[in-house]
Design a protein that fits this description.
The chain is mainly alpha-helical and 259 residues long. Helix content is 79%, strand content 0%. It has one domain.
Length: 259
């Protein structure tokens, strides 16, 4: 179905490794991996890049989730419940991915990301320490925002999902950055599985390429997770800001200059 050079495969593997590292620390690895796939296969429908991205990401995210679960204080029960809700929403998002008008969604996402960046900068202690036990109302809100809303977005487009999840969990459930990042990995595994199931059913996954990229993504994820656990919330917060700025730049370029 497609022809690709060894050099292109090597570049995609490097992108997958870097994406795995970013995803493990704070999320947003799709910022690198998805554009790399779109550039490598310009003549294929975008759904193939989306499907292959999910097949690769689910491996690296799973590796990061296992690494975090062994050393970080993750509420696995809460994370799995949130993940199930997000997975179902992701499945729905993936179903509509083929017909999405990204030109309409990008400006809204850019505004939201800029708001996130401003919030994190203006609140230097945001995510550095737990703020107490979350109320039942906050937990339900987290399920609505992170489970339903962000889960649907992950299936629909994907890049930045981990970043959105980390911010939502810190803001709504009073988690520190490391715990939020660890919990996000469990949720992200579920959303990736949900979206991948739909893309597999639609036949839009490049299975001859995905396993090679997945190995590199997993290596990056292991490295990123260990660094986040070792360096703490301050490190994760810094990577979060860099990722948000990068994501805004990429979305703005796609919206106003790419064409």
């Amino acid at each position: 179905m497609f022809d690709i050079s060894f050099t292109a495969v090597a570049v995609l593997c490097v992108a997958a490794a870097l994406a795995g590292w970013i995803d493990a620390v704070v999320g947003g690895g799709g910022l690198l991996q998805l554009p790399a796939l779109l550039i490598a296969f310009p003549h294929l429908p975008p759904a193939y890049a989306l499907g292959t991205n999910k097949a690769v990401a689910v491996v690296g995210t799973s590796a990061a989730a296992v690494t975090y679960a062994r050393k970080a204080p993750v509420d696995v029960r809460l994370a799995c419940r949130l993940g199930v809700v997000a997975a179902l929403s992701s499945l729905g998002g993936a179903f509509f991915a083929a017909g999405v008008n990204s030109a309409v969604l990008r400006p809204l996402i850019i505004v939201l990301l800029l708001g996130v960046a401003a919030f994190v900068v203006l609140r230097p202690h945001f995510g550095h320490a737990p703020g107490g036990v979350a109320t039942r109302g906050r937990v339900l809100t987290a399920f609505a925002v992170a489970g339903v809303g962000i889960g649907f977005y992950d299936g629909l487009l994907g890049p930045g999902t981990g970043t959105f999840l980390v911010i939502a969990l810190v803001a709504l459930l009073n988690m520190d950055m490391v715990t939020a990042s660890a919990t996000t990995k469990v949720v992200n595994v579920c959303t990736n599985i949900g979206a991948l199931a739909m893309f597999t059913w639609q036949g839009t996954v490049l299975w001859s390429l995905a396993p090679v990229m997945a190995v590199c993504n997993m290596a990056g994820a292991f490295t990123g997770a260990h660094m986040a656990l070792k360096r703490g919330s301050g490190f994760v917060r810094g990577v979060l800001l860099v990722t948000v700025v990068g994501l805004v730049g990429k979305l703005a370029y796609d919206q106003w200059w790419a064409h």
